[in-house]
Design goal:
homodimer; alpha+beta; two-stranded antiparallel ribbon; 9 strands; globular
Chain lengths: ~230, ~230
């Protein structure tokens, strides 16, 4: 069986830990456009299954928002992991099918976040930039999770989710905190290409992909939707 | 049953995501003493069991070193997680007893790292500073994992392991990338207090705790030691 230890990052993207990547972060911090980076990278989580990029992104964002799951994780600790995100869809279904943008939004809402989903229809580039800017200039959310087609960034794979931690406005780059760290560790990508990659149709919905904006909900965990009945 | 959503960080430590914490990182990057931060935080892993801080720190450091585990993790991907670190001690024993510094060193060596362990005997503060400096001024390892008693930092809990990502030399602070992110997200602590906390005796060995220096081995995975025979 063919197996992989990471995949080479396309040459027109910038690795977070490269010399240029380190410089871009320093400049984004200085420009005040890396606010989201700190809480998100502090909780950046590796998706626990190859199809759980939506769940892994949610685990990262919910923990970064400091939301209390109000139920135990392990031992005496309350902390989000994929297996606490049971709502809207079973983990088995998520592993088999992945998750659509509305399903990830549903899971976010069930677990105590205020969430807004945007479909990347034509003409939404300004809204995308505006949501990214509002996120990266704030120190503790809202956070943006982008749902995009990896092909649009020249990467192997298809539909994917990851949060964005920072923007470098002068070079028009976004720092993707990729939850598939076993494949592509964090990297910078052009904002416009990321938006174009989010415009790709999701075959499960027949609609474009897009992005989610998550913030700390006013109430805590709210079971808005139940698991579909079995059988 | 009493349960917790994080623990309050002692007031004399500095949270990574606080305004001061963000400033300290920017200054450490500018001073060239945050080299280790980038690869380590890109792979910072939450310990998967309350007693697996040594394993969680190793997962972080081995992935940050870019070592190929040469065996599958999930799907087609080769990536370190705790359950790949089977060598020297079973996971069940590690969960029940924790791991001593020599046991973590053994696991690191089995899994392809060159490792040097230092017991925090009296008079080793200069060696500690020197190992930290060599780590944080390099862009891709060696990496330092400290084994310390949380009580020495005013934290709840006892023996713990975590990697250090950066040093702020002017303020003499070290950035602890705590693998128990469900309890204490990353934070800055005084270097000398961290060394003092590493001087505490480990009741399992009767010797002081200390630190490990890990770098990419010249060979890859080397099964230096086998699991103890069962029964």
């Amino acid at each position: 069986m063919v197996s992989f230890h990471r995949r080479p990052l396309p040459e027109d993207l910038v690795a977070f830990e490269s010399e240029l990547g380190r410089q871009l972060l320093a400049e984004a911090i200085a420009a005040g456009t890396a606010g989201a980076f700190f809480p998100l990278v502090a909780q950046l989580h590796t998706q626990a299954d190859p199809a759980w990029c939506g769940l892994g992104s949610l685990v990262t964002a919910l923990n970064a928002l400091g939301i209390d799951p109000q139920r135990p994780w392990k031992g005496p600790w309350r902390h989000f992991s994929e297996d606490l995100l049971i709502c809207c869809k079973t983990l088995e279904q998520a592993a088999a099918e992945g998750l659509t943008l509305p399903e990830v939004a549903c899971l976010a809402a069930c677990n105590g976040a205020d969430v807004r989903g945007v479909s990347a229809e034509p003409g939404t580039i300004d809204a995308f930039r505006s949501d990214l800017r509002a996120s990266v200039t704030a120190p503790a959310g809202p956070f943006v999770i982008v749902n995009y087609d990896r092909a649009g960034l020249g990467q192997t794979g298809a539909g994917h989710y990851s949060p964005v931690g920072a923007v470098h406005e002068a070079r028009d780059l976004a720092l993707i905190l990729d939850v598939a760290r076993f494949k592509y560790p964090p990297h910078w990508a052009p904002v416009e290409r990321l938006w174009q990659a989010a415009r790709a149709e999701d075959p499960s919905t027949g609609h474009p992909r897009g992005w989610l904006v998550l913030s700390r909900g006013t109430s805590s965990v709210r079971p808005l939707c139940a698991l579909p009945a079995e059988g």
